[in-house]
Structures are given as structure tokens and as C-alpha cells.
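fyi for ur records
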Amino acid sequence: MLATDTDNIPKPADGATIPTSPTSANSRYSKHIVLTTYPGQSGIDPVPLEWGAPDAKSRGPVLVSRSGAQLKRRNALGAHGGSYAIYNALAIAAGDLPPDFRPDFRNSEPTFNFPWQPAWADKTKIVSMDPYGHDIVNQFRDELNAGWDIRPTMAVTRANMKLAEIGEAVREKKLDVDGSIVVDESGEVRVTKVAVEPVWYLPGVADRFGVDEATLRRTLFEHTGGSYPELITRPDLKVFLPPIGGLTVYIFGPPERVSDENVRLALRIHDECNGSDVFQSDICTCRPYLAFGIREAIREAQNGGSGVVIYFRKEGRALGEVIKYLVYNARKRGGDTADKYFTRTENIAGVRDMRFQALMPDILHWLGIKKIDRMLSMSNMKHDAIVQSGIKILERVPIPEDMIPSDSRVEIDAKINAGYFTTGRQYTMEELAEVRGRGWEKWEDVTSSTIVIMTCVSPQPHVPKPGVWCPAVTFFNHDTDTLDLESQKKYYSYLSQTGLTGLVILGTNSEAFLLTREERKALIATAREAVGPNYPLMAGVGAHSTKQVLELAADAADAGANYVLVLPSAYFGKATTMPVVKRFFADVAAQSPLPVVLYNFPGVCNGVDLDSETITAIVRASAAARPDGVSNVVGVKLTCGSVAKITRLAATFSKDEFAVYGGQADFLVGGLAVGSAGCIGAFTNVFPRAASRVYQLYTTGHVAEAVELQKQTALAESPIKSGIAATKYAAAVFSAPKAGIVGAEEKLRPRTPYEEPAEAAKKTVREAMAAVEEIERGL
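which gave:
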């Protein structure tokens, strides 16, 4: 042992004072101080500790105390209590606690006996906690009776808890009072709690971080001020109790369900944020996400599943609260924008995040969790750590948009850009620069947000405006197979200034069927940002089921659309009878947050063709089902080439009751002649001004001129009626350059697996459209 004698401590200079030393009469220690020990020294005989043994007895107890004879028998480094170990020492120094105190553990046993799990005996699955730390009274009773200083590192209890947001959810009927989990109308909730202090198996921790054990030990020693010399001198001791915070598990519903793979599990992994969690600062989403996680965990438990929230003590991304507040200052004084969010942290802390989720899944393995049905987290780091540890995640659930505080958009949008999961919009770095937090120019700025998430949406007429609408095509970065939102924004902005009445986002020509749900919503949001709050937007939300359509309709409303365009659900063409179609549209109309425009396109619906009688019945059924008698089905796009159908519907409904649009621009005049509201046609991507001019001429009485221009545009339109690829090529040649888009031909190639037109087809497009291009330029 490396030791010293207090008599050998250098004396202070004359007149200087030092604190009372262990040589004083009040000291509870001898003059002999043991600074460190070495393996093989006389008397050094650590109690065997086999991490990963099949049971507690064969594993052995964790002994870390230096008191009395245990100094030579201890088998672990550090001290009990985690970050509270220093307070324990202060209590002893103050004389409030005897240094040789032994707890009386009677009646402290767990309130629930968690069943043994195979991971408890797997030294690769659990390396940061003692899997038997909750049960030392039963497992090591003889040793405790013999006077060994063995301490629990876990505790299991049960309690009732109250959270304001849960009380609100009960009042709003979002949670039921079941008497078992939610016990009363105030929102009081029963919960099982598990507290865990860190106990590290150093070889396993080193392996998790991809370093060798010697490097880990040396780094821990050097960067804790040399506080633990036995990290260096005792390589035989493999267990370390670090001076850091632990975690708490909150289990809603019967705890035995947690490890049952036959029931659903909702899980929230939450890292501490005192400012938000406790004091509800609005600069981050921590408290709202925690409350949402608890609510969803309770709901899952009430539905017969299990709900778990695990709260880790990793304040400020484990950087600490001082660092966090310094970063806040730098953000606010330097201009709080999302593109600089991580840079501000790196400038002060040298790193973005020190939570290092590699150790986090240990508690999940201890609980026996094999799969997570609903992961209430957007963190890619948490997700990846859990999945890589062998636990399946079936669904990831982001925080609802309406729960995100205004000043926290900087945080959440920056994290989404860096890899956080989202079902919503993903910003480019250029767009992140426009996401701004509250400033500090005046004290009033502390309570009034200046952030703009998305341009607000002005009200539109219940029935869409008559005129020419463009089903805008989609730009891609084909190297990454992602949306090119920068080009898309320019294109939407250009189209909105060409005389078009409105834009259709996610029509057939946008390749909506090749887009993910997240991409669909991103396009709508980009369009709204590009065209401003007053310009009409219609969003295609066609899908195979009623549920899918309604989810897409909700996304469209959130992203800023005014109307939804809905195809019949016709995957099984023969089974899609007119009664099925009527029932489908009745359900959609009743539940859609936006007015519904029917989309009749037999070519993409297995031949399902809505006749005028069926359309009329759908409109009238919606009106009859609504208290105000006003139908939520407000129009139809007829991509079936039937002027007769336009005629019958125009004869049935007034224009302020129902809008009938032709599905191509080449029979715009024919449709207008029998009462159509205009058209929604792919050709308008190429020559929006010319198409709009046909409508303007006809509706202002210049019928002959309208017919003449219609003839020319109809001939030009012919080469692109063959499909989306030709339309996109024509837009790349004629309209995208006018929008200031460079490299449009590459960006407007169809998404895989579809192909661009052959060179002969491209030549035909250029030649057939040359004359109308001259007209377009003159308008």
C-alpha cells in the first residue's frame, strides 16, 4: 500500500492557517493514510466478484467501503451514492454521521420482485449497473449479518404522482379515470419506481466505447483530478462506482407486463433538463416531451399494455447546467438561429453532446425488454443504441407539433436536421438560418417570441376558386434520392406569379405515389412558404385506405394546404364498387380537416370511373351529414376526358356550391362552354401563362381569341399526354429556367424506377412546343 503519516505533512509558513487535519483530537481517523493499494500486497485479498455469473451468490457482492478491515477485502473502486457521495463525506466530517455506520435494511425490500432475466448474467448486456443491486438483503443476508458494509445500488418502490399535464389530459378526456392507474379526476397516477445508481464493469464499458480498458482507466484517473489512483494501481479490480447521477424508472401499469413480449410497450427515454422539466423554460422541448411520454405511457398501460418512462441524470446533454447556460447566452447574444445551434455548444464545450447513449440500454435489458412498440423519442442516438443492443423498435413517435414551445423551434429543427426522427418537415441549412429564437434586445423579448415557423394561412372560400390550377412537378437530388426543396421553392414561387389560380401539390404529376409521408408534408410546407399565406393550395392525399388518406389530410392541414384532392381507394379495382366508393368518400368527408375535392382518374385507379350520379350522391350525402347542411365535398377534377360529365355536374350544382374542373388543359374551352370552373392540368407546368390566358380570354368574352389560343396550346400539349416523364422534361426545358433553376433537366428526371423520355420523344416535345414558347414569352 502507498501510505503516508500525517506527521510528515509539510507545516505551513509562520502565521498561515490550515483546516483541522486528521491529527486533531476531533478526527475520526488514524494518522496513517492509505492513498492507494496494489494487487499482491500483504493482506490484500478482494472478495471474489465474477461479473456475468449466473446468479448473485456466484457473482458475489459489490464491496467498495474503505472502513476497517474492508479496505483490504473490497473488490470495487469509487464510493456509494454516485454524485451524493461527497455529501455523505460531509455528514461524517460534520459529526452528523458515524464513519462506521451500518444501515438497518428491515422493511426496505422491493415492492415488486422483478424476475431474473438472462441479461443479468450476460457481461455484454449489462455493464453500467449492478443487476442484483436491488436485492442485497436477500442475496447477501449472511454477509450483512457478519458486518460487511454492502449497500444497495437500486431501490424499488411504488407511489402516487401528480403532473399538471396529466390532470389536464384527464379533464380533456384524453385519459380515462380507471381507478387503477389514473385513480381520480385530478389526474393522480399510481406508479412503480426504480432508482438506480451507476456501477460500472470497466472492461464492458471500455468495449462499449471501442477503447481498451487501460485507456479508459487512465482517462478517468486524469480527468477526475487524480481522485481514484486505484484505477491505475489496481487493474485487478474491475468494478467502479463513478461519482455521477443515475436514473429512475417509472412504470405505469402492472410491472410484470414490462418484460412480457405479448403486450405492447410504450417507452420514453428522457435525459434530465432541470430548467424545462421542473421550471418549464420554453427554450427546449424537454418538459413537453416528458409530459407527452408520460401521457402515452399511461394510455398504453390503460389499454392493457405497459408504459415506461426512464429518467436519466444527464443535465444539459451531460455537459452540466453551467455549460448549458453559457451556451444559452452565446446563442441569444450571437443571434439564435437553428443553423448555429450546435456550433454555439461546440465553441464552449468542445463537443455537441456528452450523453453517449452506449450505456443507456442496460436498464432496458435489466427490465427484460425485448421489443418496444412505441418509442416516444426522436433521438437517433437513443434509437441506434437500443437497436444495436438487440432490442426491436416497431414505431417511433415524435412530439406533436402543438406541444412544441415557440422558442424551442431552434433546438428541435436543428436536431431534426442533424438526424432526429420526424414525420414532418426537414429543413436545409439555408432554411435553418431563417429559424430564429427570441432575442434579448429588450426585456419584453423574454416573453414575446419573434420566431416564425411557417407563414400563416389565410382563409380561402369553402369552394375552390375557378380558374387554372397547376399540379406542380417535383424536383429531386438523384445523387441522394431526396427532394430538392431549394429548387422546389423557386418553382412554386414562379408558378404563383404567372396568373394561375392555385397550385396542386402532390397531384399525379408530382409523383406523389413515389414519395414518403414525410416528403409529402415537406412539399406542402415548402409550397406554403414559397407562395405566402394568401395563395390557394390544394394537396393530393390519395392512398389505399381511409386511415392513410385521413393521416395525409391531417398532414396537409398542418403544412398549410387549403383543400385536399382525393382519389378513390381502388387498389382492388373489381372490389371497388360504387357503394364502396360512396362509403369511402363519406368517411373521408366527415373526418377531413379540409374541404375535399374528388379526383376521378380511371387510368391510375384500376379503371374505377366515377359517374356523374355517384359524384352527385357523394356531395349530397356529405351535406346531409353536416349540421349546417353544407357539403364538405366541394369539387371534382375529371381526368377522364368527359365533357358530358362536366355538363351534367354543372347542370346539377351551382358554381358557388361545387367546382367542376377538367383534368387536362386541352379541353379547357370546351369545359368552360358547358359550365366548368376551369382546369387542373399538367400542361400548366410548362406554359402557365398561356393556359391562364385561355381562361382569361374566354371568361372576359373574348371567345374567338380563346378558341384560337386553345387550338395552339392543345397541339403543344399532345406530346406530354403520354406521361409524367415527358411533362417533367418539358418543364425542365421551358419553365424551370424562368424560375431561376439551374440543371433542371437532371433535377426533373422521374424518380426511380421510372425513366426519362427517349431522345426522339424529347425532340418531339421541343419541336411541338416551340411556337407556344414564343407566345408564353410574350405574355
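The mean pLDDT is 91. thats all i got for now
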